Amino acid sequence: MPYFISGVTADHTDLIARTPAEFKSLNDIDVLTRHRVLEVDTANRKIKVADLVSGREFYDHYTRLLISTGAHAFLPELPGSSLEGVFTLRKLADSISIRQFVRSRRVASAVIVGAGPIGIEMCESFRSLGIEVSLVESAEQVMPFMAADLAALVQDRLEREGVACYLGQAVEGIEGGPGGAVRAVRTASSTIDAEVVLLGLGVRPSSELASAAGIELGVKGAIRVDRRMATSAPGVFAAVDCATAINTISGLETWMPLGSTARKQGRLAGETMFGADTGFPGIQGTSVVKCFDITVGRTGLDSSESSAAGFQPAVVDIAAPSLHDYYPGGGTIHLKVIADGPSGRILGAQTVGAMHSVAEKRLDVLAVAVHAGLTAEDLQYLDLAYAPPYSTAVDAVGIAGNLMAGKILAPGCSCDAFGLD
Ligand SMILES: Cc1cc2nc3c(=O)[nH]c(=O)nc-3n(C[C@H](O)[C@H](O)[C@H](O)COP(=O)(O)OP(=O)(O)OC[C@H]3O[C@@H](n4cnc5c(N)ncnc54)[C@H](O)[C@@H]3O)c2cc1C
After folding, report:
1. In this predicted model, what pLDDT tens digit does every residue of 86-125 receive, in sequence order?
2. Which terminus of the chain has fewer CB atoms gathered within 10 Å of its CB, N or C?
3. Which of 250, 301, 257 is nearest to 238 (CA)?
4. Is the CB of residue 259 below 6 angstroms from any atom belonging to ligand 1?
5. 128 CA to middle of ligand 1, Å?
6. 145-166 tens-digit pLDDT
7. Which residues pair with 175 in a beta bridge?
8. Letter string b/e over residues 95-108, b meaning 16 or more CB atoms within 10 A of that residue's CB
């Protein structure tokens, strides 16, 4: 959607994976758009539905029911949040409204509240339309889910692209102008002019329907499911952004709404609802974000999450070239790898790199390492592809493995061999 707003994706219909007509012709599935489920009666296995066009309400019955109501944008009580020109970005309709608004009004200034993935993607989207962008974040760093030293690299890139970062500042209110449209965003110490405001304050699971039906909720209010995606109610399953999952590393219940998980869980829920004896192994939270011409991503646990899960984390930081000096192109890959000291098991990784450094490939290798329970020593001996146009003979992943193995074998040695340049 951020790329549709900027025009990289020309038409919103390109974002529709499959239309109701295609569902019908390809799979004989009836899709009822503009219908809302109002209630789930788990005792009698029926749902109450409202046709939002005609206003008619009716009941339907199920043998098995999947709740996949997704998540919704978090919108705190904030004075001025309903002013014209204040948006959240969750649904396709939101992106159409934002695109129309900024183009028809020839918007010149935007405030983005929240420096998470959507806020970061929207910085690039608005800047590419020539809009002045201010980014306001209550945490002391952008991308609060990244380590501070890597987040500083992201902030640097944002500022070099003309994004004004207001960190450690919570928004206290949004002010309107004479015509009722948004005029400025107010924090405790700043008033920032804005003709459009995007609130990217995170999401919450849409679990109200399940909760009202007496279905058990879990962490962060998401619908608690087992490995077959079954809820506490017989015959009722739940999947994806509205549901919990198990973190594969800590073994703890977690809630991480991601589209990559959505595809896997949706398919699996469909199978298990009809008897397949498969189970969802869980998630480790691998994600990646483009910030102008850099790539930012993480997988698995960070250092403090590792400690909280009972591990003894060892961390190595490297900044390695993606290619040898003698071959043109490439760039620096900043990589932070976290492993459990006693066992050497890789627990997580974070990266920031220029897009042409292909940092996300290294992140994916490390995601596989985390998934497979590989150790630092395993990383040293991974048989990764090498030729000068693609990588160095010892890839960033191998360097991290060498340093980590050294660190674990010789505790106390400094492994920030390359530093962060
Ligand atoms: C701007 C943006 C960028 C993103 N980028 C990425 C990315 O790069 N990578 C990634 O992995 N993830 C990304 N995500 C997250 C990803 O889109 C979600 O994880 C995924 O869409 C979740 O799918 P879902 O089916 O659970 O929920 P949704 O896609 O939200 O679908 C839930 C649907 O249920 C409907 N619904 C809710 N309640 C009812 C009811 N009572 N009756 C009937 N219908 C109801 C809703 O209207 C909605 O259409 C992004 C999200 C956004 C908003």
Report:
1. 999 999 999 999 999 999 999 999 999 999 999 999 999 9
2. C
3. 257
4. yes
5. 25
6. 999 999 999 999 999 999 999 9
7. 184
8. beebbebbeeeebe
